[in-house]
Design goal:
Blueprint (H helix, E strand, L loop, with lengths): L2 E7 L7 E7 L2 H4 L4 E3 L3 E3 L2 E9 L3 E8 L6 E11 L9 E11 L4 E9 H6 L9 E19 L15 E2 L3 E3 L2 E9 L9 E8 L6 E10 L5 E2 L3 E5 L8 E4 L2 H5 L4 E14 L25
Antiparallel strand pairs: 1-2, 2-10, 3-5, 4-5, 5-6, 6-9, 7-8, 7-10, 10-19, 11-13, 12-13, 13-14, 14-18, 15-16, 15-17, 15-19
């Protein structure tokens, strides 16, 4: 396994992050078909780096682990094999605008660098291992699905308790869905309806989530960036949209929905007793049991 050596967040407008791994020397000297890294988190998704070898070349791939049907993650990434003597002798390849989906979760290059050159050109460190950097940047993640609209007769009404709900999708290591509810009970004739985001896993904390929603054919409705709190029951804030679901569907039997996720951050609530000096302190512990 390739070990994580260091992690750097560049704090630029593309949210660039660099993961540096130590490749074992046996990857070059022994007939080891591939090695991989432990999961890393970038853009609220889990990824792993995979390093393969042929008889003469080292190959490098990036794999998205948290993907589902309808999910699309577009990202720029690059691999850099670090030269021990000088950075101008590094070997790099860059992939831009690569789309990861449930049908295509892994991308990279099979013939990145020749195995012989890894030794001859001083890529081997003093320990015999190799340093390789994975940079990820400019991620754009969205989920798209179709929700079937129910048929209505002149004497029927849509149930107030029912919801049109999307299938589940994964983001921020949680499962989510979007529901649409007509406010007056009629899918066809109602002039406004309510949109709500639901979280289906990890109920220990409330969380702050930012996202966009596009509904209907050809982007008939596009929301502004929604910044909401999702409570411990998993329900987000309700958002009222003017218009009929059937109008947005443009006469089709199903409604197109696209959710573009921006961020999700867990939030811990702390209650302090302001009337007592001795009790106006809270002790917080993270997942590694470190006190804050």
């Amino acid at each position: 396994m390739a070990k994580l050596h260091r992690f750097i967040k560049l704090n630029d407008r593309f949210d660039s992050q660099v993961f540096t791994f130590l490749l074992p020397a046996k990857l070059v000297t022994e007939k080891n078909p591939e090695t991989y890294t432990k999961d890393v988190v970038y853009g609220y998704h889990k990824w792993t780096a995979i390093f393969t070898r042929t008889d003469v070349h080292l190959g490098c791939y990036l794999k998205l682990l948290t993907c589902c049907d309808g999910m699309q993650c577009q990202i720029d990434f690059s691999y850099t094999l670090v030269n021990r003597e000088h950075f101008t002798r590094n070997e790099t390849f860059i992939e831009k605008g690569i789309m990861f989906t449930s049908e295509s979760t892994q991308h990279g290059r099979k013939n990145f660098v020749a195995l012989g050159e890894m030794v001859e050109r001083d890529f081997s460190q003093a320990s015999g291992e190799f340093l390789i950097e994975l940079e990820m940047r400019k991620i754009n993640c969205s989920f798209e699905c179709y929700v079937r609209l129910p048929r209505e007769t002149p004497n029927s009404r849509y149930s107030d308790d029912s919801k049109l709900e999307s299938s589940y999708f994964t983001y921020g290591l949680c499962d989510w869905s979007i529901s649409l509810t007509p406010n007056d009970g009629s899918v066809q004739h109602d002039e406004h309806f309510t949109l709500q985001l639901h979280r289906h896993t990890s109920f220990d904390h409330i969380c702050n989530v930012r996202y966009y929603v596009t509904i209907g054919e050809n982007g008939a409705f596009q929301s502004e960036e929604l910044d909401q709190l999702v409570d411990t029951t998993g329900n987000g804030e309700m958002y009222v949209i003017n218009g009929s679901l059937y109008q947005l569907a443009r006469g089709r039997s199903s409604l197109r929905m696209k959710i573009t996720m921006v961020s999700v951050v867990t939030v811990s609530e702390v209650t302090l007793n302001v009337s007592s000096r001795s009790n106006s302190r809270a002790h917080l512990y993270d997942k590694d049991k470190q006190a804050w």
